[in-house]
Design a protein that fits this description.
There is one protein chain. The protein has one domain: Spore Coat Polysaccharide Biosynthesis Protein SpsA, Chain A. It is 24% helix and 26% strand. It has seven helices and 16 strands. A hairpin with a 2-residue loop joins strand 11 and strand 12 (168-173).
Length: 254
Amino acid sequence: MKVVILAGGYGMRLSEETEILPKPMIEIGGKPLLWHLMKFFSTRHFNEFIVALGYKGEVIKRYFLHYPQLQSHMHVNLEKGSVDTSGGVDEDWKIDLIDTGRDTMTGGRLKRLRDRVQSTIIFTYSDGLSDINLERLLEFHRSHGKIATVTAVPPPSRFGLLEIDKDQVSSFNEKPRDSHELINGGFFVLEPDALDYIDDDSTSWEREPCERLAKDGQLMAYRHNGYWQCVDTLHELRLLRNAWSDGRAPWKIW
């Protein structure tokens, strides 16, 4: 099964880091965020990747074309933008690096990959890490017979929660996680027909396509209550880097 990863956004809220590097190439423990995500998938035996490139896509191409541990073991097809690491030392990955346009929206990037999607795919973003059980996610998707599944997660807490009674703090909860609200955590499972809900390059996947899928009764939610962390701010990036350096990175299952 192929894994489609969107890696083309600007990362405006991380401008201190993304002025030189695209967000997927920001490092955690000496490895790009994108590598951590792909390593997570490959550990679960998902080794075929389609990476949709945009902003500073050439940086991502250079990384995989000169991946240090695989230089003498990979076959590179520049014409098709694919990297085959099937003889690699550490990873057995097949990667298609596809330029989907600098200013294309998330849905538009998926739409441009439509001819490459002939069967069920896992689709996610390149700026979120999790310990999600992929096998259970797929089992859930296959059980309901709809064409799209989204992973629903509790929103990560950005700030501590204070309870105040007449100016006196009665409770201080640094990391409240008991919210009943759920948000889009990425990690979609899609049938090819789901991509036909996308109009063009200007379409955001999270808007009209998902709204129409929901209206048609074709979008189901898989609830994940474990670890999930996106990287939109420097604070969130520090959380991931600290978790890695402290040896408590939940997404590190290898």
